[in-house]
Structures are given as C-alpha cells and as structure tokens.
C-alpha cells in the first residue's frame, strides 16, 4: 500500500524568507504523481504544485518549487519570499494509476510571521 | 465558472440517524471523489465516481455509500450515524480520470454527530 509521511507538524517562517516543507512517500508503482495542496482556514483545498514521477525536472510555480528525489522517495516543497497569505495547512499527496484517488500526508501547519 | 458546491455547509445530527450530503462538480467535470477529514485520522479517501460508476472505494464500513447522477452531481449517505462520523467531508471534482488530473475541492460539509 502507498503511504505519505509528513514529519513536520508545524513550521514557522518570517515574511519574505524561504521555508521548506518535507514529505516522503512509499510506493511500489512506477507511474505516479505527487501533489502539494494548501488548506487555509476557509477549509477549501487548493492545488499548489504537482509533479509527474517520470519527469526528472523539478516542478516550479512562481514562488513555489519542489525538490523531487525519486530514489529517496522524497518530495519537498520550497516556498520563497513567504507572504502572510501563505499561512495554511499544507498537505503532500500521492496518486497512482488511472485513478483520481489521493493519498494524503498528515499535513504541516505553516505560520508566517510579519 | 462556478466551483465545486457542497451542501449543506454545516449539519448537526443525532446518533443513529442518517444523513445525505450533496456535491455539485464544476460544469463539465465527470469525476467526483469524496474524502473524510478528522483531526485524528487526517484526510481519508471514501469513494470515487466517474460517469455514474463507482471506480474506487476506501476502507470505510458499509454505512457509507454514495452515488453519482447523470448530470455528474454526487451524493454520499451515512446511515446509523456514530459519534466518530463527526468530520469535515470534502468533495473533489476532476475533468477526467488519471492521476495527473487536477482535483478541485469544495469547501466541505461539517458534520457533527451528537
């Protein structure tokens, strides 16, 4: 069975600084996808960034980038130039095969200090 | 384009009762997935529907059921409610099946069982 682990329950960063959230996963599948979702206090989950496992190049979306280490099964999220609006719960998620089923980690609560 | 709409937003039920939650996906989306979010268990996958067919089911008791209609709207039903069913129920819609497809989430239904 696939699992996703986020070992940092809470993180804090100063506004304008950079923070990295960690995620590791376990799978025996060769074709899969990894995601970072953000859940602000409004509760609505929003996709931040996604990565296809067969692509070696790390995905980037504006201030958000990932460090995808396939052999180590690691998928960390880097947020540059942190903003107050980045404060939220961040979930790492896995999806494999012809399904939309997402397996989520336990989340990391990110606080941004002004 | 309207987002994913979940109704009702809040619900209070008594143990032993049953409840039906509704999800209207983004127009044109044919895939709907349901998740249960609790502080103790995190985000857990319930079911996935595509074109009125259940394609995947999570590890939940038979009291949890769902269906999808021809207009892609989906409902989930929980019978004989237990205190442990108190949770945020999230619905996600996607345009197609396949792990890379972006899932768009609704704001959820907060169910409280007393």
pLDDT averaged residue by residue of chain B: 95
Question: How many helices of chain B in DSSP terms?
Answer: 0
Which residues of chain A form runs of ≥5 with pLDDT under 50?
Answer: none
Overall geometry of chain A: globular
Task: Write up this protein.
The complex is a heterodimer of chains A (114) and B (114). Chain A is 0% helix and 53% strand. Chain A is an all-beta fold. In chain A, strands 2, 5, 6, 10, 11 and 12 form a six-stranded mixed sheet that branches. Chain A has a four-stranded antiparallel sheet with strand order 3-9-8-7, with no helix packed on it. The radius of gyration of chain A is 14 Å and the shape is globular. The mean pLDDT of chain B is 95. In chain B, strand 5 and strand 6 form a beta hairpin. In chain B, strands 2, 4, 5, 6, 9, 10 and 11 form a seven-stranded mixed sheet that branches. Chain B has a four-stranded antiparallel sheet with strand order 1-3-8-7, with no helix packed on it. Chain B is mostly beta strands and 114 residues long.
Furnish the topology, listing elements before pairings:
The complex is a heterodimer of chains A (114) and B (114).
Chain A: E1 3-5, E2 10-14, E3 19-21, E4 24-26, E5 32-39, E6 46-52, E7 60-61, E8 64-69, E9 74-79, E10 88-96, E11 103-104, E12 108-113
Parallel strand pairs in A: 2-12
Antiparallel strand pairs in A: 1-4, 3-9, 5-6, 5-10, 7-8, 8-9, 10-11, 10-12
Chain B: E1 5-7, E2 10-13, E3 19-24, E4 31-38, E5 42-50, E6 53-57, E7 64-68, E8 74-78, E9 87-94, E10 104-105, E11 109-113
Can you summarize this structure?
The complex is a heterodimer of chains A (114) and B (114). By secondary structure, chain A is mainly β. Chain A has strands at 3-5, 10-14, 19-21, 24-26, 32-39, 46-52, 60-61, 64-69, 74-79, 88-96, 103-104, 108-113.
């Amino acid at each position: 069975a696939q699992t996703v682990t986020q070992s940092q329950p809470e993180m804090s960063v100063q506004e304008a600084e950079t923070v990295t959230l960690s995620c590791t996963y376990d799978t025996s599948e060769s074709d899969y996808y990894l995601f970072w979702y953000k859940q602000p206090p409004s509760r609505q989950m929003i996709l931040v960034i996604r990565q296809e496992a067969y692509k070696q190049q790390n995905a980037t979306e504006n201030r958000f980038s990932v460090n995808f280490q396939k052999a180590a099964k690691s998928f960390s999220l880097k947020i540059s130039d942190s903003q107050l609006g980045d404060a939220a719960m961040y979930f790492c998620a896995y999806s494999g095969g012809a399904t939309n089923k997402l397996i989520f980690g336990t989340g990391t609560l990110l606080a941004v200090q002004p | 384009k309207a987002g994913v709409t979940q109704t009702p937003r809040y619900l209070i039920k008594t143990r032993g009762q049953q409840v039906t939650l509704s999800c209207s996906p983004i127009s044109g989306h044919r895939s709907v997935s349901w998740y249960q979010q609790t502080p103790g268990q995190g985000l857990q996958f319930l079911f996935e529907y595509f074109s009125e067919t259940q394609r995947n089911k999570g590890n939940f008791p038979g009291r949890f059921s769902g269906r999808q209609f021809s207009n892609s709207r989906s409902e989930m039903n929980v019978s004989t409610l237990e205190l442990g069913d108190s949770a945020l129920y999230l619905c996600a819609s996607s345009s197609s099946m396949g792990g890379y497809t972006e899932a768009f989430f609704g704001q959820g239904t907060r169910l409280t069982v007393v």
